[in-house]
């Protein structure tokens, strides 16, 4: 069973409600009257300009707040990038800004036009013929960003991409099974002129197909070998006869004691707003806004085809544009509520992405349990979580973004990585910078980094962040048996102290976000702790492209003072950027962080040493983190859970008591 309502019952639209098609059309119409708008101007990103935070904190729902739309535009003929802000209430442009030297994200339109332009180039065609390819319609051309290696300074001002090529045997074939090694084009995305085609030498195309879809897999020439589908998987039915435990009013959600709002942007995709938990009759805030602030994938292969691969999937493409339509029984199970997302094309026309976000409940085994071995009495309560998820198709990879809210106040975020590894071709021995996937085919080793922007609001906007380490104590008269250890709390009092902090898994380091103005029943500041699930750091050293352009990856935690203009870990426009933007620039102000409005940035990742089992469709691997209440409540907030059906307080095991 599914529900689809996204219209709020309130007569006043909520100021954080995602944009409607009508609002996008209205704003686009207004912008097209701007003097600097030309027929060659394309709409790169259109999103809600979120209202002032203080206005949101005091908004009572009775009066509408100003409704504004933020736009990023590219005039291809004049090679200019712009930002604009449109007031829907006044039907006018309230801000128009030229961005000298800025390259905006690559659009879907440019991706398709790049494919066609490269395939029509005579130099590229000659290179393909040298590899035995005559039917150019079967080629796939992926518009990889150039990054910044210092090689293209003479092309300053051009909007560039370095397309890579793959070959299919037939239209539905998996082209990533046959990468064209040593062939790289350079294209101007504004004019679609192919500037260069460089061929560093022919490497034979891998001989075998890599089809994963049973509809196109063949027993002849496929790797791995085709096997029959399993016939012995029995159905698992998930039913909720009384319906789900959540209620939805437009984009506002209540589930158990959780209250929050769903948001969506073309750059970030899924966003959570105003996350709070009802405790003792009042809703206590935890997060004002939570989103994925950047994704970065550096590759560790120095080969000519691969060394430029340093993709910022949000800033260089936009994750929200690429979400899947989620399917019942495939992506989500149970009683589902779907949220559509409204994005836009390059002409500014709204595009509705159906079922972009899925929400459902999951049983999660045991919430808590205790057996009194003296009496044999057993008390058990089951855990449950609310799942809010979305899947983005970013080139060869697919990324699932999953928020989990638990009955005990825990919040988790998880990225599920799947899809297709980026491939290369080889002859002889496999390059040492990757692993063989099939004869003549390999996957370069690489890393995935994800930066979360967590606008914290632990019982309000006055928060402080402590780094908490567990330390052994010296052997002395207070510790004669050398077994004592304690936690040491260090206040991150300013941005200089809170930059590029690293996880320490061996000693369980975590970061405690507290409100020093609010005390729990024990007299301690209320708080939540951020528990990292990954200690990954980039393999590239200082001075590398990763170091210059993705410095946020070199620390698992940064804390900044809230600034409504600072949203993205690698800066607003990482495409072709030289680096130094985003978090490294934010913290140069060294603003105070104690007892103030803070934003916590957490970076985590997945270290991908490629293996044969990753081919042709990569099994899901997951990475993420947790926010756990740490003195936020006076005790276990899940003590009030009812006993599961047929599982009450029992003494069934007392006869087995070994004591």
From TrEMBL:
Its cofactor is Cu cation. Keywords: Copper, Metal-binding, Oxidoreductase, TPQ. The active site is at residues 313, 397. Gene3D superfamilies: 3.10.450.40, Copper amine oxidase, catalytic domain (2.70.98.20). GO terms for biological process: amine metabolic process. PROSITE patterns: COPPER_AMINE_OXID_2. GO terms for molecular function: copper ion binding; primary methylamine oxidase activity; quinone binding. Its EC number is 1.4.3.-. It holds the Pfam family Cu_amine_oxidN3. Residues 14-98 form the Copper amine oxidase N2-terminal domain. Residues 106-204 form the Copper amine oxidase N3-terminal domain. The keyword Metal-binding applies. Contains 1 topaquinone per subunit. Residues 237-639 form the Copper amine oxidase catalytic domain. The modification 2',4',5'-topaquinone is found at residue 397. Topaquinone (TPQ) is generated by copper-dependent autoxidation of a specific tyrosyl residue. The keyword Oxidoreductase applies. It is an enzyme of class 1 (oxidoreductase). Belongs to the copper/topaquinone oxidase family. This is Amine oxidase. It comes from Streptomyces ruber.
